[in-house]
Amino acid sequence: MSETASPSAPAYSGPRRILSGIQASGALHLGNYLGALKRFTQLQDQGAPCFLFVADLHAITVWQDPNLLAAQTREIAAAYLASGLDPAKSVIFPQSAVRAHSELAWIFNCVARLGWLDRMTQFKEKSGKHKERSSVGLYTYPVLQAADILLYKATEVPTGEDQKQHLELTRDIAAKFNGDFGVPGFFPLPEPLTQGPAPRVMSLRDGTAKMSKSDPSDASRINLTDDADVIAGKIRKSKTDMGVMPEPGESLDARPEVRNLLTIYAALSDRSRDDVTAEFAGQGFGAFKPKLADLAVESLAPVTAEMRRLMADPAEIDRVLKDGADRAAAVADATVAEVKDVVGFWKG
Ligand code: TYM
Description:
Blueprint: E1 18-23, H1 30-45, E2 50-55, H2 56-59, H3 69-82, E3 91-94, H4 100-109, H5 114-118, H6 121-127, H7 136-151, E4 156-158, H8 164-180, E5 191-193, H9 228-236, H10 256-269, H11 273-280, H12 285-311, H13 314-343
Parallel strand pairs: 1-2, 2-3, 4-5
Ligand 1 binds at residues 19-23, 31-32, 35-36, 55, 58, 145, 148-149, 157, 159-160, 162-163, 198-201, 210-211.
């Protein structure tokens, strides 16, 4: 990217703030849990102020059934709560309920350059061969993401590795805005926190492809709605190879499926991959897989049970979302008011 902060520009001096979001577009999977949800809770529990939202504006960049969208939003909110986020500590809200997201996104559309967006690999993946039939929103998706982050002047953004390029673009937009309008340090250049224990959980059927809700094979992922038998079955049938469990220090470059299962085991049990490798070295997959299945079920069952309980009581979720939207809007509206001043809009 072309713009970076000039080393002489004064640094942002505001408070530490964590922000992240998850799209309201259907089933959550183990990748979302390990790459995002579990990390949000860890950051919250370390005392960091967290803003976590349901990205429903992002969801509609591809078609969403209007009869399902609100329920999908509640489902993500339920996942936030079930994985340990506490609405008394963290601000949990639907993106569309805070108008400032759309407002700042427009202003950033006029800051970001076409050439920057042309380089976004996620757009290329999602639009596939039919670029001209994709929505314009899908193309400017990362600009809205930058608005999400900078509205709250977030200093750190925990996500899986797939969001790295969008976070770099956010830094570029922040730096260009600060530079173009002569307001050094106005927006922070947020730090991407993409180095968690499992920043890229891979498909159970192909260790070179990311675990994803868009994979046509349901066996490729563990959904947060899967029950214990389904989880155990998917792990039992997960792709491995003809070898045995690796020795510590052995290269796993040619064994992506094995590396993935070890990474999942380590992340679920809060241990290092080296430690887990040492425990299972030389054993057959027939010994390892049932232990991984037990661990996955044991870790996810309380989360999925709590999600189900919450989904049965939408009023409780709605209270959390409404309160979160009010608290988020208080911060976001103040930023937009400042931005409008900086840009020079009429105030009346
Ligand atoms: P989304 O909804 O695709 O994914 C939500 C979070 O889950 C992470 N993730 C994974 N992590 C590890 N392994 C995987 N296989 C895996 N798949 C998904 C994602 O990295 C993400 O952290 N654009 C975002 C939503 C968003 C956002 C934001 C995030 C909108 N605005 C502002 C941060 C800040 C997205 O589509 O995530």
